[in-house]
Amino acid sequence: MKFDLMTVGHWSLIGGLVITVLASLMVIPNLTLILFGLGIIVGFLNVNDKGSSSFLIAVIALLIIGVAGLQLGELTDLVSEVLQNFITFMAAAALIVAVKQILSVAKAK
Fold this sequence. Notes:
mainly alpha
């Protein structure tokens, strides 16, 4: 298997998604830092300039769904934990992509 940054980004995305689910079933120390760190890696390595707008729109929709789901309060504890973990993971990725997009727009002028 060829080792490159895209491979690291790809596995970070898969790992982050798996950890968001597994962490709701077991205790993982420093979970927030792990998910935030993986989200940052995903934001830097997985999303290019062409796909950044689509990625941000998708993440915004997913984050709204996640936050709305948590606000309803009628979800099971398991689902609530998965949503909280997912929000942490994807918010970090979205933060990096948004900053990259802002810098790209500012540089273009």
